[in-house]
# Entry
Amino acid sequence: MTTTAHPRFAEALTALGITAEVRAFPEATRTAAEAAAAIGCELGRIVKSLIFAADGVPVLVLMDGASRVDVAAVARELGAARVTRADAAVVRETTGYAIGGVPPFGHRTRTRVLADRSLLAHETVWAAAGTPHTVFAMAPGELVRYAGATVADVREGSGPPEGPSEGPSEGPSEG
# Structure
């Protein structure tokens, strides 16, 4: 079991001057439901860090754990013709982390980031700290700032009524 944040994420915290308590759990916190159960918080306070491909270019979407990403809304927000879920190899190549432990910042490459507005409804949110067993808490406004995210309405049911969501359904797999 890992008892600290992933080294790359720990370096990012230090570089940004962030003091965050990283909590480790013997049970996995790979999914939003697992993380919420381990922490003892509501599902909506978990931040899912999800990598998509917008016209083939990786983009990170930060979504509350109780919601699903509307890929059509992401496409509209980015002006992309097609948005799909990235596979595990693209997630690791883009972020430097495995699915289930992707934090909202501290990635290997600079990626465009969208944060769903629903995250701002909470005083504190919990996100992966680079491993499937570690999480950290932060005020959502700070998380958005450190991630360099653009706040957008990309949650299923939050955008304009333009018909059903496109693309494959999204699971809660990425921390």
In short: Residues 45 and 122 are 7 Å apart (CA to CA).
